[in-house]
Amino acid sequence: GEFLAGQGIAVSALLLPGHGTTPEDLNRVRWEDWASAAEEALAALKAKVPKVFVAGLSMGAILACYIAERDASLAGLILYAPAFQVTNRFFWLAPLLKGVIRQFPKGKETDLTDPEAPSRLWHYPTYPVRGAAEFLALQRRVRRDLGAIRVPTIAFYSSRDANVPLSATRFLDRFGTPDKEIIILHNSGHCMTV
Length: 194
What we know:
Layout: H1 2-6, H2 23-26, H3 31-46, E1 53-57, H4 59-70, E2 76-80, H5 94-97, E3 103-105, E4 126-128, H6 129-144, E5 153-158, E6 180-185
Parallel strand pairs: 1-2, 2-5, 5-6
Antiparallel strand pairs: 3-4
Helix pairs in contact: 3-4, 4-6
C-alpha cells in the first residue's frame, strides 16, 4: 500500500473491526461489521477515483470476494491466499465451541521461508474462537454466491501455505468471470505479503 501510494495511486487500507487491538476485541464483532467497514472504505475511495481494485489476504480476500459479489463496477479483484477452505480441522468446531472457549494459543511454527519475515508479521498470539466462528459464517456466505463475481480476478496461492491448501483454487472455477488467473508461489508461506 505504501509503495503504491508513493507511485501516486490512491490506496485505502482499512483496519477491520476487532483487528489490530486484542484477541478479545475480535471475539466481540460479527462478520457483518467487517463487511460494513469494507463497504464504507470502498465508497469513500470510489468518491475520489474512477477505477477501483479490491484486494485482500486470507480472510481479507474472502471479504474482498463479498464486496465483488455485490459490486460489479470494480476494475478487478486481487486475492492473496484466499481462505475458501482452511487446513485447521478445529476451525469447523468454532461455532460449537465459541460459548465454551474464548481463545486458544497458536503454535510457534511458521511456514514463512524468509527468517526475517515473522518479525514483519503482526498477529494475535491466540485464535479468538468467536472471531473464527464469524469468519466461518462469512466464508460460507461468500462461497454460496461465487458466480456473482464478474470482475477480472487474479489469485495468488503458495505451495508452502500451512493454512490454506492448494485445493482451495477450485473455488475460482465457480467465479462468474471468465477473466481469472491463478499464480502459485513456491517460496512463500500463508502471509505472502511479508
